[in-house]
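User: Hey, quick favor. My workstation is busy. Could you predict this chain's structure for me?
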Amino acid sequence: MAPFPNTSDMEVSSPLLRLPGEIRNKIFQYVLTSSAPLHHCQSWDVVSSHNLKIFRHHSFEEETAPGDTRPRPFFNSVKFVCRQLYAETAGLELKFNTLLFNAQAELQYLQAPGTIQKTTAQDWFFDLVDSLTAEKLQWLSTVILASNQKFNDVVPLPAVLNEIADFAKQHPHINVRFHFEGFCLDLTHVQRPTQEFFRVGFILVTALRDAEESRVLWEALTGVACFPHVVATIHGLWSKPAVFGNVPNFSIWPTNGFDEIRAALEAEKQGMHIEEMDYHEVLRYAKMWAEHGITGLP
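Assistant: No problem, here it is.
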């Protein structure tokens, strides 16, 4: 990378740097705010190929269209203009945006050159957290962990959620949204995707909220009473108090928006044999999950 231009020269020629700092800050916020979540990605700097000195950096990019494989520029390119702008804007994209983390393949240059290791969304997030100063950690506001964690209703709650919930509890200013891979409308592999979607939602509501709420949802979905042993079994596998108690900023979200869920539910409505009144109750849950997630709070 070419060296930064000399800041004193930039100050003379740049109208931006001649503006008062408070006005520049407003411009930075406008320029570095995205209308959609920024996607986390890894980047590498090879300082010396002879000595294999490699440094990994966290960067963020805007989402591109499906199938578009062209290289994406850093969202915050302002920091590369000169030393002063780097000092004033490096990391500001964390302050103004929702950040989305996916599972990514990590090149293991140092341990086993050329090999690839799958790294989870939460691994990348905690790696970023470890790299931040206390001041920049305060900049984070909303984080989406699009996990590749498979949803399984017959095993105890994944231990990783304990770690994430504990982090959220210690940092109440950060809203953490966790996405299970299976809490979605699987239009490809499932014959009745909305039934599977609401089955997973029912399990999460039962595990993380009160029994009365899960009873109402079950009866709306099936038209029959919810058996007490079903609720007891789920409570036994998913330990709510240890994970979600008093953590309002940690929630589990579906990967689909409400409009997608409503359209799919309308298409399957007849096959599910849901009464009109129950249909609106189920729709209410779908809207609540899509807009607020599922938390362990009453």
